[in-house]
Amino acid sequence: MKFKAAFATDDGKTFMERHFGDALFYDIYEVKDDKALFVKRIENTVPEEEELHADPRKAKGISSLLLKENVTVVVSKIFGPNIKRIRKKFVCIVIKNGTIDDAVHRIIKNLDLIKGEWNKDENRSHLML
Q: Could you give the C-alpha distances from 82 to 28, 36, 95, in angstroms and in order?
């Protein structure tokens, strides 16, 4: 199994205390078998929508940004209400504690669970690792 995962971060080491879509950056890793390699950091260039909380335009913008990078798994400490929209395109993983490195290791240990969730297509739920 091989996929790309995007980790929501402001500093490349930890998850921030805001929703996934509010991250300054997304660190992208390629996960293959029992390894994960850092690919690149992309800036969150999607404008903040102030008119409506959980604005579908923001979900669409974040999704487009990550789909251009072939991301299929998204990881954050906190997701907002737009999770119901983005989980149709990604496996959403909630990490309640630890660093980005810790999260990478948890993902490697749970590849079968992630693959199973991916195969549910638009009926996906989020995973908590």
A: 20, 27, 17
